[in-house]
Amino acid sequence: MPEVVALGEPLVQFNAVTDGPLRHVTYFEKHATGSEANVCVALVRLGVSCGLITRLGADEFGLFIYNWLRGEGVDVSHIRFDPDRPTGIYFVQRNYPISGVSDVLYYRKGSAASALSSDDVDSDYVGSARVFHTTGITMAISDTARSAALRGLEIARSRGVATSFDVNFRRKLWTNVEDAVNALTRALSLVDIVFLDEDEANLLLGVSAIDDVFRELRSRFGVNKAVLKLGLRGSVAYWEGRVAKVDAFRVPVKDPIGAGDAYAGVFLASILRGYDVESAMRRASAAAAMVVMVRGDEENLPREEDLRRFLEGYGRQVDLR
Ligand code: KDG
User: Which of 32, 176, 208, 309 could form a disulfide with 202 if both were Cys (CB 3.0 to 4.6 A apart)?
Assistant: First the structure.
């Protein structure tokens, strides 16, 4: 049984090869993505086994995703194919209208994964993991997927499995913000480890200053392990009673999508392999930096050797010898 079980929707991403508004883009590159799937791949590349609970369309894109996950060594035993619904896709517009920022256009309504339900959550599978991970994206895609995510968190909790949750607020996936706040705060009451950024903190907790965020998470939700991502200012964690901070790595950005998943996956892998929280954060930040240097979310997710080379080489002069 895998050490980590994740639940969520993999997607095929069509990333604009050229910058600018999509109406003028002719060429798109196909990538395998999806937040929880990316986290699984980040984990397995660092030697931590991970299984994904999901549904895919019985179509070419479903097979593309399935072969990707299976090829990476993710446990695919809890992936079901749906003959009646398609695999979700989305398009990425890069560097327009804001330089360094990507915009997404989803085509995922009625997708196979949006029919995920609590019946997909096998209690023995979740119950024998060390960590169960899901995100606010799964909470947003449909009522039944939200029930599945909550069921996964509840089962994990009742079986002594650590629960990990990336808030991943996607405004485009929610009909209104109030529903999002209600659902996401419900999830927070079931999580042991949470990843969020300042905007998400503001939305869910009404505060964004570091100490206030950690205090609110503790007092309102009993969350004692949290990572607050500060973008180019780095990240800060509240972990077992103390606060740790690391800087971000500055790199040329091709497409920032996927950075959060790289961070969460590498952070969890590092904690599970016994790294202290600062080292886990540093490794996670490095992975996030590596991922934004290319189009696509998963291509630059590092193996141990890549991570070591990035961390040792960062900031050095180019040596042409
Ligand atoms: O974190 C990256 C994901 O956001 C991306 O792969 C697409 O899962 C996705 C989503 O729902 O936005």
Answer: 208
